[in-house]
Automatic annotation (TrEMBL):
This is TPR repeat domain-containing protein. Residues 210-448 form the TPR repeat domain. Coiled coil: none annotated. Gene3D superfamilies: ESAT-6-like (1.10.287.1060).
Amino acid sequence: MIPRRSQLHVWNPRDLTLAGEEIGRTAEDTRSRAEDVYRVVADLGLHDDWRGPSQAAAEQRANTERTEFRRLADDLEDLSTALVGGADRLGHARDYVATVIDKAATDGFAVSDDWQIVSQPKTMSDAEAAEHADLMEYWRSQLDGALTELDNADRDMATAIRGALGAVAASAPASAGLSGHEGTALGEQVARGGSDIPQDVRDRVAREIAAAGLTPEQVKTLADGGKVTDVPQGTMDFLQQFYTAAGKDGFLALSEQYSENGRTEAASALSNGLAVVSNYNVGSAAGDVGGRSHIPESLRGLFEGPVTSTGNLTKGANDSPQQSMVVNNGHDLARFTKAFGLADPAVQQGSELSENLLSRAGEIASATNDKSLLIGDSFDHNVLRRDGVDTLLQDMVGVGGRDHAAVHNILSGEGMPTDYNRDDVVMPLLQRDWAEGGERNVAGMFDWIADDARPSDPSDLGEMFRSQQAGESAFGLAQILAAKDAELLDIPGMKGQAIGEVNPEITQALGTSLAPYIGNMVGVPESFTGTSAFSGESGHAHLRLEEVPRIFSVIDSNADAAGYFNAQALGVSAQLEQAWAVDGQAHQNPHYEYGAWAGNLQGVVDKGFDLEFADRLGDETSQNAAGFESKGVAYDTIRTVISKGVEFIPVAGPLISSGIDLADPTFKSAVMGSIPDSTLQANTDFADNALLANQYYQIALGLQAANGGALDPYEGLDLFRDGENGPLLSYDEIGAENPYQRLPLLQSGLVGYMTDSGITGLGNFIDSLNAGRDQVKDMRYGQ
């Protein structure tokens, strides 16, 4: 910043120099004291009266503190250098400006307060006036150069100071009280306060916890899958020791007292701090990382040990007690879930407590899904009855499920204990007969997967991480549906009902989450689908083709879910057929695998319905009112879904690059043309011919797009164009009137056009497509 001339004389760079020198002495003193502390602790180990684990731990801690203080001293030294060096340059720049002003004055020029060159008017000849103007321009140039150097010196110094101050702030505790010792003392005060924690203690905790919070940049790092490694050690110590000293009861009491007094920000900050110390992606530069080891033992106990115990439930005053089931720690779990739910979901990403909530919810659901069980204990008013357990599970899934990293780990098994079995956690949640809120929360565990499946910017590391996290999560989910289809189509204890009937919202969420990966399921590579990591954490696992119809059958148990999911599958199939034409065929690489993938998908759609219907026929007690009553109704519904404007997910890379609009009515009409028409099934020969005509039509659409939006003139296609030599009409329009005559003509015209255009391998491609479809349809299950 350039001051006015009248302000320049009050600039005293010497004051900055003195401040920098004092900070430099502080840096040296800090470094010296750190060495003294370490030396004193280390020397204690030389005496026989203090040896063993406690001495070793103290020495290690002292070494950690020495490292942190050395870093702080280095940062203070950088700040000192920024001040002293900047003040020196600023002083020289200021003196240079003064020198220019003085020298300009000897030539009769003055400098105004806003840095303009001025001179007293006087009578001059033309030659003198010209010489005077040149001289004025010279001094104006000199002054501008001097002021530019002054401005640069000021800006560079400010930048250096800001950078150094930022480093100091990162190395030093955010407040004087953030240390392990202070955390212990404050936590003990909270614990002693019990149900009435003193106001001054609550106020101080609120201030210190807020000071210990993550920065927005650190929160973004967590969201992008990175690790936060620059939390000051004093802050980590403060948080860990505070929660350990406060314990479960102190944490819960403090959170509830904040909420009761309307201090929602303080309650949120309290839970944010717990999310930080329980997060394995957060640590200090000294290597102290959050996670299970930092969670107070009393809180860990909520998620350990037997899930249930035996109780005695009395229905009435004169009734004898009946044996019942008690959810252990149920009341405190409910209190904890409510408190932890006040944390910022962005800060929560990666907390082991999220995983604990989801894992324990699965265990509780498994133990209580049988509705014939009596739940509760009349002798303990804090024990939950069945409705209380339902609410508890709903909340546990809601809070834990908003942590995408935790859901990913639950589904993929990454980072979980060696004895972890995801089926034990996920299946009870999918099979439970939820109330509306609980079903919505389980569905919410998965609804982010589709959003993150495809990165919009592959150069953005955060987007790529989220895409990989989504792919690995979707793969785990697909594996569960494929392996547990029977238990989801016949939920135990639900009289043969399927998941689509018991939990329609969850089933729809499953279909939406897996839709971007439909192509991957049959082997379409990620370069086509734009997805990532749909092959498990190792990157080497793959679904077997015979598993894919099982996935479809589960989603087919709900008509709304099936309508969308199968429409997407047929849309992918259509894209692959068109991509074969767009990508160009060569003898060396005819791309017949596009046809095999497209045919596999058509077969999977059909086989999925077969499996779901076959399962339902074996259920004497369930008609699955949520599913389709027949395959004809199913296909008619898919037609309706497409006609009402379903948005197809882009899949085929060559097709995308060609610019084909998947929202175009022509494309949607072509997709509907590949769906068996129930009104034509009586004439099997014609249905087969109609399907063949549609396959040629799909390929022609790809050629049309690659040819600028219309096929070249060809007499055999004139009947099927929109105007002279215009684009092809939609498949519906072509077949709307007298399809028995027009569709065979369309097929003949397209074959002739493609033959004349030099398209080779058309017959082999169609054979590949039909073989791919038959490969799936001929699979035998249950034998």
